[in-house]
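Q: Convert this sequence to structure tokens.
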Amino acid sequence: MSDQQASTSASRMRKFREKQKEKDPNFTGNETKRLRELRKRKAENLSEGELKAISLKERDKKRLQRAKKRVELKNPTDSPVSTESPYKSKQTLSKAVQKSLKALPQSSTKKKAVVTELARKMNIALAESPNISTSGDGTRYDDVKAFYYRPDIVYTCPGANDFIVVWKTALRRSVKSII
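A:
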């Protein structure tokens, strides 16, 4: 088997159109006219229902093209990287992700090390997440601690017997929450 992959018909047509544009500058205009005439001839023999179905499909295609153009205008990129997923459906992508996750080590630090090394080898930049530390001035830590030590409401959820302790006018009441 050769190292080169077989070219698809779409890529062959793309190359053909590029060559034709180089030869004839009016190729795109002529091609558009030719396709319009072809569609008109085809539409003469179709029923109303079939014409309506075709117009709906064309309308959806135009909407998709306009949406794609809007996204390109909002996010201009220098590199021609496709934003579309190489997977045809979300389910196949999810399945591939799940298989990859199963293959990773159980330890979270080892998982992180493996993923960062893979990203480094594939030249993918990872965004650094800010680490929240309890050291330093401790204002955030003190605020969180004060919140959890509030005497008015304390939530305790041991499982099946979930209950809430509510303090009202110096009276302590346990209220069972039914889920």
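The mean pLDDT is 79.
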